[in-house]
Q: What sequence folds into this?
């Protein structure tokens, strides 16, 4: 800063202050290090200022002779004329890195621990920017770079590349590879040069990286977040018992892309035809051009096929790949095989379905399901977009009529677990024992509607916060702070959320509470305060007996009443002196009972099941 507190350029700034040397220069991107800063302007020029220790400003050998600092932004001529334009810059604790639009990577500063990625020969301090040639020679174009305390991460750009020839020519996205260099205390192994990070990142494309004090994070093109390194205070989004993560690990609490949960899972069906068992429908092969590639049942009434996902899952989409082969006899209908799948029902349940075939099996299965969908139109791939907030474990496909049931593949896309994800991650920033993930903004109106309803159902106070955002203005006008007419969408998997459990537990007390100013719905804090201040019941208070008027409750009451009546007849008041007489009476009664049971049977032979003597031997 050229002007800060009391005119001292080395003083701390207690509030955001304009860097006057750059006031007339638009800045494209900026970066902060331990004691220095850097920025790239719209003209693609690089400016640095702050402490020049360890060569992290890249000012050359002049900073090596004596300790110095730059109180004003200094232009650093990183590239000669007619060279690629600067893209971004990143500052670490004692080193700095920058990338160009042509994918070149420049590093300078302290090389201790291999953080510069210049190989074993480059572990010393570099006082001027130096290009990382091994990455360039290997054909890797670096898009982003991030400097941490003792390591550096870099990710290549994602480009569209044409592959194949003739009719097989297609455009593919290539790139998104992650490279790391630095200390073993952060990366799990010593990397003096930039080595590719594999593990789970080998099959995904990264778009952004962030290097923290002792951990790292990567955001993929699908919006997933991966973390690894020291998990101090849970900064890697894992349980604190995991002290160190040697490889990138998915932070599933943020977002996990839906995968095929049915692949290779246990499956069963009503019957089996020609050895085509139920497992064929979950083997991953969607080709239905041959009957040998499809699962098939006998010609059953309401034939069914079912898969067990192994655990409760938040299901998004289910796809059915139909059989595609045609009869060899030209006189037969071309869709003879594929049309057998219709009409059918696709359903999901939290409990196993019954094994019964025919009869009321379809009706019973539909009644048990938490969601269901009917297919009546024939397609190669039939897709069911499952309603939101549906959690289930068992998926069943069942015909309506009497026919064979055969298809090529059934895919269930979702996320294991009752709760859904927070949302797709767009950027991540790693600090010292902490991580900040930014969720992508919502563009679909239905998503905005769902998020607003979840927020106000969790706490009405959230409405006062969201109403200030233009995105939720229409939702606030429609739903306000919530009310009784909004169905809870937080409850999932047949389990009630904390709010619903509280309202059920304190239903009578909350009913007597007055609404807020202007009839507003009370916030959680207001409810808690009123419940604590509510009049306490007297010491001799008798809780109100809640009568269950459902058919199950009435049946239980009837059985309890019959039990009490039978117990009253058998039990009579007996004095301690009557023990002998009671025993004698009971023995006589038992003998009489034996004589009555051994009496001769009627001449008609054994009694019928409904006859008075049925069941006696």
A:
């Amino acid at each position: 800063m050229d002007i800060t507190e009391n005119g001292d350029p080395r003083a701390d700034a207690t509030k955001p202050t304009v860097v006057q040397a750059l006031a007339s220069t638009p800045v494209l991107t900026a970066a902060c290090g331990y004691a220095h800063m850097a920025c790239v302007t719209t003209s693609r020029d690089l400016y640095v200022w702050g402490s020049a220790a360890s060569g992290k400003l890249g000012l050359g050998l002049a900073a090596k002779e004596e300790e110095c600092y730059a109180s004003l932004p200094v232009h650093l001529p990183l590239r000669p004329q007619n060279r690629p334009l600067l893209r971004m810059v990143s500052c670490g604790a004692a080193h700095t890195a920058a990338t160009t639009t042509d994918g070149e990577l420049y590093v300078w500063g302290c090389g201790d621990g291999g953080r510069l990625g210049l190989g074993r020969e480059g572990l010393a301090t570099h006082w001027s920017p130096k290009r990382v040639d091994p990455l360039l020679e290997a054909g890797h174009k670096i898009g982003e770079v991030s400097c941490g305390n003792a390591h550096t991460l870099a990710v290549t750009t994602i480009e569209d590349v044409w592959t194949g020839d003739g009719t097989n020519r297609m455009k593919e996205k290539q790139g998104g590879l992650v490279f790391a260099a630095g200390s073993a205390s952060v990366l799990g192994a010593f990397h003096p040069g930039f080595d590719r990070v594999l593990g789970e990142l080998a099959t995904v494309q990264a778009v952004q990286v962030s290097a923290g004090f002792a951990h790292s994070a990567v955001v993929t093109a699908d919006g997933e977040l991966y973390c690894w390194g020291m998990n101090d205070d849970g900064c890697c989004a894992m349980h604190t018992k995991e002290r160190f993560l040697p490889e990138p690990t998915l932070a599933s609490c943020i977002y996990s892309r839906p995968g095929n949960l049915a692949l290779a899972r246990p499956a069963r069906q009503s019957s089996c035809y020609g050895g085509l068992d139920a497992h064929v429908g979950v083997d991953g092969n969607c080709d239905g051009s041959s009957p040998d590639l499809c699962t098939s049942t006998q010609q059953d009434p309401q034939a069914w096929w079912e898969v067990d996902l192994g655990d409760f899952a938040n299901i998004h989409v289910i796809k059915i790949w139909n059989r595609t082969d045609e009869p060899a006899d030209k006189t037969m209908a071309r869709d003879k095989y594929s049309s057998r799948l219709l009409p059918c029902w696709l359903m999901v349940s939290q409990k196993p379905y019954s094994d019964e075939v025919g009869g009321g099996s379809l009706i019973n299965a539909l009644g048990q399901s938490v969601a269901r969908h009917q297919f009546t139109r024939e397609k190669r791939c039939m897709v069911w977009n499952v309603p939101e907030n549906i959690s289930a474990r068992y998926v069943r496909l069942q015909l309506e009529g009497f026919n064979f049931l055969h298809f090529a593949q059934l895919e269930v896309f979702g996320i294991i677990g009752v709760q859904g994800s927070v949302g797709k991650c767009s950027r991540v920033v790693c600090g010292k024992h902490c991580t900040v993930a930014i969720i992508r903004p919502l563009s679909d109106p239905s998503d905005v509607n769902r998020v607003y309803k979840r927020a106000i159902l969790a706490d009405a106070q959230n409405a006062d916060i969201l109403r200030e955002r233009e995105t939720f203005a229409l939702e606030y006008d429609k739903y306000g702070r919530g009310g009784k007419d909004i169905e809870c969408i937080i409850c999932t998997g047949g389990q009630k959320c904390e709010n619903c459990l509280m309202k059920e537990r304190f239903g009578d007390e909350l009913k007597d509470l007055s609404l807020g100013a202007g009839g507003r719905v009370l916030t959680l804090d207001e409810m808690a305060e009123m419940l604590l201040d509510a009049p306490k019941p007297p010491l001799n208070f008798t809780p109100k007996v809640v009568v269950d008027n459902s058919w199950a409750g009435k049946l239980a009451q009837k059985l309890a009443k019959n039990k009490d009546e039978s117990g009253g007849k058998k039990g009579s008041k007996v004095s301690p002196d009557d023990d002998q007489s009671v025993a004698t009476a009971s023995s006589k009664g038992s003998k009489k009972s034996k004589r009555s049971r051994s009496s001769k049977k009627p001449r008609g032979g054994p009694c019928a099941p409904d006859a008075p003597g049925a069941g006696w031997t």
